[in-house]
Design brief:
Elongation Factor Tu (Ef-tu), domain 3; seven-stranded antiparallel β-sheet; 6 helices; elongated
């Protein structure tokens, strides 16, 4: 696990820290890639987190969401102490069984779902998996199928 300190800056409305090149090089080596989001885990001022390092406007950043900052007791303008490493644990979101059934029954929607960018598929699956009632799941699946057709 690598350690660094960095000031928390705001890009647009998003608080983040810039990941130093030496640490970024190790993350990329461990991830086996030099582009695209890199899943990481570590600590922020001693509090555990899981997040993704992403490249935006030419710099690799670790975005610090509100729960992360509140848990660590820090905010924008403060200096964050970060321990970080590549997270090898897959972050796949499971397919909701009722959506899987609906997609098996509708080839056109299934093909459209597979063509969606990974982040969009994940967003749909997360939303569906968070719903609490069967009625809400049914309504949402109908809406997703209409969108996909």
């Amino acid at each position: 696990m690598k350690t660094f300190s960095a000031p928390i800056v705001v890009i647009g409305i998003n608080p983040c820290v810039v990941v130093p090149d030496t640490i970024l090089k190790k993350l990329m080596e461990d991830a086996g890639k030099a582009k695209g989001p890199i899943p990481v885990r570590g600590t922020l001022n001693g509090k555990k987190f899981k997040q993704t390092v992403v490249k935006y406007s030419g710099a690799w950043r670790l975005y610090l969401n509100t729960p992360m900052r509140q848990g660590a007791g820090i905010d924008t303008g403060d200096t964050a102490r970060i321990r970080i490493e590549f997270d090898r644990v897959p972050r796949a979101v499971p397919m909701h069984p009722r959506l899987a059934l609906a997609l098996r029954r509708n080839r056109r929607a299934s093909a459209a779902f597979r063509r969606l960018p990974p982040y969009r598929r994940k967003e749909i699956l997360r939303y569906l998996n968070a719903l609490r009632t069967a009625d809400a799941v049914s309504r949402t699946i109908k809406r997703v199928l209409r969108h996909l057709k």
